[in-house]
Design goal:
Chains A, B: Pathway: Amino-acid biosynthesis; L-threonine biosynthesis; L-threonine from L-aspartate: step 4/5. Two copies of one chain form a homodimer. Chain A is an alpha+beta fold and 313 residues long. Chain A folds into two domains: 166 residues, Ribosomal Protein S5, domain 2, CATH 3.30.230; 130 residues, GHMP kinase, C-terminal domain (Alpha-Beta Plaits), CATH 3.30.70.890. In chain A, 36% of the residues lie in helices and 26% in strands. Chain A starts with 5 loop residues before the first strand and ends with a strand.
């Protein structure tokens, strides 16, 4: 068999919502992330042969597995469901962490299989298949994790239903400090905590901040970015699911963060920072608040990851 | 007296909201607009000596007049309320047109007086004084007309209360077709027709479209601009105040408009178009729908006006 008979890919964690961009904005970070290995197999069809790092929680039936659904959806589209493919899934980030764990698996599944069979589709064309995988886990149809995980960088989603996405430039010195406290929040619970209706005034504030954040990112205006990182819709409701959220927020801002909010549906939190040193200091400040509870946490420091999912071997 | 003893300024009409940017986005056009003349006077204090084009509707008492309030607020800030200044106001656009008529008067008043007394403040610094004039007419505090009228171009308002505004580049070939049908809508009525609460889903759609529009404007992506010009909040409620609104919209889109919606609180409508020829065709299509009602209307074709208020003599 050729060197291409086995492919290992890495799909990065992502921070969705980004404060004012509920369901429409996300960015990728360098670590953590999931790895998926695919190879040609004798037996027709897609088979998940091995899963690690999931504490036995994930089903090996591809039709019930996030990465499997994404890959199957792609193979079905290409009329190649009989092709013999073996898949190994190595979960390297926690479930329900707010870091786009299911999106990473879905993206990795679709991307790896596409590579293995000779790359018939572009990354952009893989978006709907990765979305199908993510939706099978999450029940919702939003691209704010899948988009940046697949494409890399900062991704804005004009329309989730139309999958109309735009990539934004990442200011060179923009760093993220992401801290994951060791508790689990189900996306479903975090969604149900949100109101069905919101005051028009809040919508206008959120729209103002989202627009300000986009202008700030594009114009590399750190002051404007900082003034714009406010979420008046989800954060006030979801913060109660995260112990000492406001203490952590105050500590992050006091340590120099441009802004701080919840990553995705939580419990991970993130801060945007100007420079690596600032991000380190901010991550330490946040971790310190959780440690005092006491609550274990993992901190990640990263530039915006502009690569997205990629082959590692 | 020196040549600078009398100054005439022109303040342009503006399109606020721009579909998905309710209260946070506006742009200036070349015409119509208001003119204000100021000169040094013998009698201490600000005096409005002449008003034309208002059908006798505007008060000459500066404290009750939009342009007067803006000028007085500025003079008060500078400790110069005793300075003798005469002001003439020439209204050249209709009241309640949705073209930022009161904003134009307020901007012209503050800008003209600032020029006359030697320009102690920059354009940006005049924003709160022009806002005070506009608020005296309108009762609300939003900068989506005053901002672009003063600064020119496309202006995004991150926060109305903080007056945090950003200027966006205007794609070179972006034209506006603005049509004012001869009916009057009071801003107050158009505001009261809006709900106090909106579905979260609509807020997310609006945020997606607003972000898409900003990305499209900055990246000169006419396709993205076109896909983003949708208002799911104000337009569905306010359209009933404008006769045959949806007929006009369909005609504009059929004639090639990138998008179409209500200018400010209406009754003026606007379309964004790629190129002058397209804008002319679209304006004719819209005017044709109003003419068939029958309803008189005035059409204006303009590039985005990047100058804003300026001295004309």
């Amino acid at each position: 068999m050729s060197a291409k008979s086995e492919i290992r890919v890495f799909a990065p964690a992502t921070v969705a919502n980004v404060a004012c961009g509920y369901d429409v904005l996300g960015f990728a970070i360098d670590a953590p992330g999931d790895e998926i290995v695919v190879r040609h197999g004798e037996k027709p069809g897609l088979h998940i042969t091995k899963i690690t790092g999931d504490d036995g929680k994930l089903p090996k039936n591809p039709a019930q597995n996030t990465a499997g659904v994404a890959a199957l959806d792609l193979l079905k589209h290409l009329g190649m469901t009989d092709r013999g493919i073996e898949m190994e899934i190595h979960k390297k980030m926690p479930f329900g962490s707010g870091l786009g764990s299911s999106a990473a698996s879905a993206v990795a599944g679709a991307f790896a299989v596409n590579k293995l069979i000779g790359e018939p589709l572009t990354k952009n064309q893989l978006l709907p298949f990765a979305m199908a995988g993510e939706a099978s886990a999450d029940g919702a149809w939003h691209a704010d994790n899948v988009g940046p995980c697949l494409l890399g960088g900062i991704v804005f989603i004009r329309s989730n239903s139309e999958l109309d996405v735009a990539q934004l430039p990442a200011p060179k010195n923009l760093w993220a400090a992401v801290v994951h406290p060791d508790i689990e929040i189900l996306t479903k619970v975090a969604r149900e905590i949100l109101p069905k209706e919101i005051p028009l005034e809040n919508a206008t504030q959120q729209i103002g901040n989202l627009g300000g954040l986009l202008c700030g990112l594009i114009q590399e205006d750190y002051g404007l970015i900082s003034r714009s990182i406010h979420d008046v819709i989800a954060e006030p409701r979801r913060q109660k699911l995260i112990p000492d959220f406001y203490k952590a927020k105050r500590a992050a801002l006091a340590a120099g963060a441009l802004g701080f909010s919840i990553s995705g549906a939580g419990p991970s939190v993130f801060a945007l920072c100007e420079g690596e040193q600032s991000a380190k200091k901010v991550a330490d400040a946040i971790s310190g608040i959780f440690a005092a509870i006491p609550l274990n946490s993992q901190a990640y420091i990263s530039r915006i990851n502009t690569k997205g999912v990629h082959v590692i071997s």
